[in-house]
Amino acid sequence: MEPRPPSVILVEPQLAENIGACARVMANFGLSDLRLVRPRDGWPQERAWASASGASWPLDEARVFDRLEDALADLQLVYATTARAREINLPVFTPREAAGELARAAASGLSVGLLFGGERAGLESDDVARAHAVVTVPVDPRFRSLNLAQAVALNAYEWRMTMADRPPEAFEPEQPPATHEAVEGFLGQLEGELHASGFLHPPEKTPSMLRNLRAVFLRAGLSDQEVRTLRGVVTALSKGRGKVLEKLAAKKAAKD
Predict the structure, then answer these.
(1) Which of 3, 10, 173, 202 sits 20 to 30 Å CA-CA off 26?
(2) In this structure, which topology does domain 7-165 adopt according to CATH?
(3) In this predicted model, what pLDDT tens digit does every residue of 182-228 receive, in sequence order?
């Protein structure tokens, strides 16, 4: 049984024709799960089917999401495609390297995905921060711009080649990685407690601090058990802080 191919997630795609072209190359290389996050002109769009040239099945089953975190919720390994350097410290792969990593993960039963930005500006830093690694196409530095469908095609082709060359060697983690939804739940809890503790200061640095923390935990490839353990740690620390604050308040009241 072949591994399940990567899901393709398009964030804020603008043109129906480009969505259709992405579906066409997905079909060329055996990918079918298309997820759209806030398509600019809504969905469905007839021009997408016309541009797909008969590759209708990724479009017929495409799912639309208002939030990127919902589009990624069931995935366990997600790579973000971007041509620009980011301040987020994530592993960086070429499409060929990324395809090998994704293929090994998928062969072990994990749900994997490739994340693509819109035509105008690509992925935002906050989008990239939700991925476990970055995929960068080694294009000529004099002209880095790639059409959205070209970017999907390059990555889909490399995925297909992992299937054509030889069956991928599955890696078998001791415990399967947690879903994106589980990790997001932990990160949301952690962020809330960091706000409550006053750690996130000064305010203007909060977004970059949170992105860097997110990168740390996504690089770790946490399992479900590890996420549960970390959530328990955060809960215990928050309760401990609450008891300290209660004691301080009691001492102050006694003095008054």
Answers:
(1) 173
(2) Alpha/beta knot (3.40.1280)
(3) 988 999 989 888 888 888 888 888 888 888 888 888 888 888 888 88
- Determine contact, residues 14/43, Cβ cutoff 8 Å: no
* Fold (topology level) of 180-255: Helicase, Ruva Protein; domain 3 (1.10.8)
Cβ atoms of 237 and 197 within 8 Å: the answer is: no
- Alpha-carbon gap, residue 22 to 29, rounded angstroms: 11
Angle between helices 180-197 and 224-255 (to 10 degrees): 20
Give the closest residue to 89 by CA, choosing from 31, 118, 131, 34.
Answer: 131
Where in the chain are the domains? 7-165, 180-255
Q: Which two tokens stand for residue 155?
A: 């990555």
Per-residue pLDDT of 123-168, as tens digits, reads 998 999 999 999 999 998 888 888 999 999 999 999 999 987 655 5
Q: What is the pTM of this model?
A: 0.77
Q: Which residue has the tokens 């809504």?
A: 42
**Strand partners for 81:** 135
101 confidence band (pLDDT: 50, 70, 90): very high
Q: Which of 137, 149, 170, 121 is nearest to 8 (CA)?
A: 149
